[in-house]
Amino acid sequence: MKRTIIDELIKWKDSKRRKPLLMTGVRQCGKTHAVKEFGEQFFENTCYVNFEANEKYKAIFEYDFDVKRILREIEQLEQVKIEAGKTLVIFDEIQEAPRAITALKYFCENIRELHVACACSLLGVALKQENISFPVGKVNRMQMYPMNFSEFLMACGEEKYLEIFNEWSVDRVVPELYSKPFERLLKEYLIVGGMPEAVSEYIDSKDFSAVGEIQDEILSDYADDFSKHAPVSEIEKIRLIWDSVPKQLAKENNKFVFSHVKAGKRAHELEASLQWLKNSGLIHMLELVDNAEVPLAAYANASYFKVYMSDVGLLCRRLGLSHKNVLEENWSMSFKGAITENYVLNELISLGKEPYFWRSGNTAELDFLFEEEGKVFPVEVKAATNTQAKSFKQFCIKYHPFKGYKMSMKNIALNDCEGTSTVSLPLYLIWDMDKITKGLEIDD
After folding, report:
1. Using the 8-state DSSP alphabet, how is residue 255 labeled?
2. How far apart are CA 208 and CA 219, in angstroms?
3. What per-residue confidence (pLDDT) applies to 331?
4. Are residues 191 and 232 in the same domain?
5. Are 218 and 303 contained in the same domain?
6. Reduced to 3 states, what is the DSSP secondary structure of residue 174?
7. For residue 62, what is the domain's CATH number?
8. Domain carrying residue 237
């Protein structure tokens, strides 16, 4: 299955600024497969070292940080020739070997011409817990996520839709020839999600029940990670928060409330556990801004936030929705809104956006907004075709953004809202939002 992160890896390979790479991401999102495939395609050979599967490699880094010695011993153990420019060295699950992380500094300083790519889960967790001397300024970072909708389309053999819409414009409606299959594929994606093993099973069998079994296994593995990697004092609290996330998302006002995790629990008792889930990549935290001026980060309120899951398919599974629920024309609106919102957030993040949400007292709330090129862009999300949005209008009146988005199942269109160029964008075309609106130039 093709992953778009391969394109980023190619850029890293050819960059004049290249340093050892740290690729992070939630467990089982496809990091190892991606770097191995990259190595097979673009290098004469690869040297693969997995610190979790075989602890013997840790000992190589215990003596000193002489990279020539380290590489010589790895060559002997793996029976492989490591040559700069020809070999990709892969350190997998490097968070299990803290000194190997520190050693990346010396790979950068002493043998920078060698391509070193590290895949790591739970790195944020490890950095908090272990006494790791992190090589600040000596590594390149790359974040990987579960498969987004466009990657799902490619995996399902539906690349034709990506090619057709590559040159689409905002002034052309989507005919039923394309909209109907797109809508069907989107519903399938909401059920299956973007975990590669679940996607692969669906491609092979088209059996949603089999997909559900795999999702249950992944969720069980995540729960096991709580016990293996979290501080003992936090394990139960992490489980409580993890169980609370889908329930709170399904509420109409889905601001995360600590007291809803467990009666009597206060924020200061649960904040560390919530941060553990964020550091592991299992959740996204969306912060409030009440003043939508640039830079948005300066106005973010870290104490008022919403929590979303990193994979929409796992969210559906945890909500107990069957594939029949989602495939129905009129399925539960309470769940539909939460799932759609989570899907949109994940798509925006996969496009490199950094979303927040906006509130104006108790009178208005905008689902998302993000900043690019010194401009703020509002996003309103609707699960169906009704795009009436008082909050979006109120935001436009107050801040006069150049461009905004209403994302729904309504067809593509360009309208005006209080002087704001407002793109009605079908949910199945978020992956193409930048190209579709490229003709709308920002007037400075």
Report:
1. B
2. 16
3. 61
4. yes
5. yes
6. coil
7. 3.40.50.300
8. 149-436
Which residues, at least 6 apart from 339, have a Cβ–Cβ distance to it below 8 Å?
190, 312, 315, 316, 319, 321, 326, 383
Structure tokens at 414: 């360009």
Looking up tokens 């905004």 gives 404
Is the confidence at residue 196, as pLDDT, over 70?
A: yes
Q: Report DSSP letters for 46-71, one per residue.
A: EEEEETTT-THHHHHTTS---HHHHH
For 380-424, how does the pLDDT look when each residue is reduced to its tens digit (9 = 90+)?
Answer: 999 988 888 899 999 999 999 999 999 999 999 999 999 999 999
Strands (E), 272-429: 283-289, 300-309, 356-360, 364-372, 375-381, 403-408, 413-417, 420-426
pLDDT digits (tens, 9 = 90+) for 279-321: 999 999 999 999 999 999 999 999 999 999 999 999 999 999 8
Q: 239-268: per-residue pLDDT in tens?
A: 999 999 999 998 877 889 999 999 888 899
Q: What is the dihedral of CA 319, 324, 329, 332, to 10 degrees?
A: -30
Closest CA relative to residue 134, chosen from 120, 145, 146: 120
pTM to 2 decimal places: 0.94
| Eight-class DSSP state of 411 | P
Contact 99, 58 (CB under 8 A): yes
| Residue 263 token pair | 């009666």
Sole residue written with tokens 């693969």: 48
